[in-house]
Specification:
By secondary structure, this protein is mainly alpha-helical. About 60% of the residues lie in helices and about 5% in strands. Helix 4 (about 75-95) crosses helix 13 (about 300-310), helix 6 (about 115-145) packs across helix 9 and helix 10 (about 225-240) crosses helix 11 (about 250-270).
Length: about 325
């Protein structure tokens, strides 16, 4: 029994898959999550309502992002490396650029009433409903693109996963969580954010990418509904990068991918005067670390960016674009 409980624990890095003294973001699993029919019904309606436009948008990028027939060439690899450099350069010039994870970890704890933490908490509260919608649509789209949920039973699992996303309603700041974010599956309605993390994510785009990451963990849940999707995405990441992406790393990378997708859709839905590359970079800037180490459950921060750009080449192209 102890073995089962241990296996069901999820430690996540909402933003910090990097050199932790211990596990990072916690997704502890307790008694089986029950989703009431009303939540499932509402979730399904929301999924259908938002899938149309989102699917059309992503279909236009399919050759770059998800097509299994797309080859990954040395030219693509070079573009990925240039995009990483661009994203991290944008961070240093952007007044709303995120604090890198390793810098967050070196800072003293912040009280809940710290002005920057309060701003971050309000931002997370404001963006949570929007992020839920983007995550639901992204999960459905990826399941179709990777062709892993074709049967009626599998579609039912997707419905349950998206219902779990809709159940998350609250952000809770926590001084002790520092530079981490987490969700306990025994309390799946709340995302817990360290105050340092809230203060370090200074833009809407960065916050959405992290919120979407946590929501994807919730979506998979105790039953690990999204495990086939995690494995399919991991296989492509391995083929394109040669990185070791298995087990929990596959889940973490998929959560990050949905985070990037959600941030990009938010940018499209909310155009502004800022250059698009600058806004796109915000989705990954917290991984622009100097201390680039990994652990058993996470790729290193910079390898996370590398894998994300390799999975979605159009994200890299858009980030390198000078057409604003």
């Amino acid at each position: 029994m102890a073995e089962q409980v241990k296996k069901l624990e999820r430690w996540r890095r909402g933003d910090g898959e990097t050199r932790r003294k211990g596990p990072t973001y916690r997704l502890s699993v307790c008694p089986r999550l029950r989703v009431i029919p009303v939540v499932l019904f509402v979730s399904t309606l929301v999924s259908l309502a938002y899938l149309g436009d989102f699917s059309n948008t992503l279909a236009q990028r399919r050759s770059g992002a998800h097509s299994t027939a797309a080859s990954f060439t040395p030219t693509d690899r070079a573009m990925v490396e240039r995009a990483i450099g661009t994203a991290c350069s944008e961070r240093t010039r952007d007044p709303l650029g995120s604090t890198p994870i390793d810098e967050m970890q070196s800072r003293p704890s912040l009280p809940v009433n710290n002005p920057d933490a309060l701003v971050g908490s309000r931002r997370a509260d404001r963006l949570l409903p929007t992020t839920r919608r983007f995550v639901v649509a992204a999960i459905i789209q990826l399941a179709k693109e990777y062709d892993v949920y074709g049967s009626a039973a599998s579609r039912s699992r997707i419905d349950l996963a998206t219902a779990r996303v809709q159940s998350v309603k609250r952000i809770r700041p926590n001084v002790d969580a520092r530079d981490n974010a987490s969700v306990l599956l025994r309390e799946p309605h709340t995302i817990e954010f360290g105050t340092i993390f809230l203060a370090g994510l200074r833009s809407d785009e960065a916050m959405i990418s992290v919120l979407a990451h946590e929501l994807t963990h919730v979506a998979s849940g105790q039953t690990e509904s999204l495990r086939p999707l995690f494995r399919a995405i991991a296989r492509r990441a391995v083929a394109r990068t040669g990185l070791h992406v298995q087990g929990q790393r596959a889940e973490e990378l998929t959560c990050d991918l949905i985070g990037v997708m959600s941030a990009r859709e938010f940018i499209k839905a909310n155009p502004g005067w800022e250059p698009q590359p600058l806004r796109l970079a915000r989705a990954v800037e917290h991984n622009c670390v100097n201390d680039d180490t990994s652990d058993e459950d996470h790729l290193s921060p910079r390898n996370t960016i590398r894998a994300l750009f390799a999975l979605d080449l159009n994200f890299a192209r858009e980030l390198l674009s000078t057409d604003n």
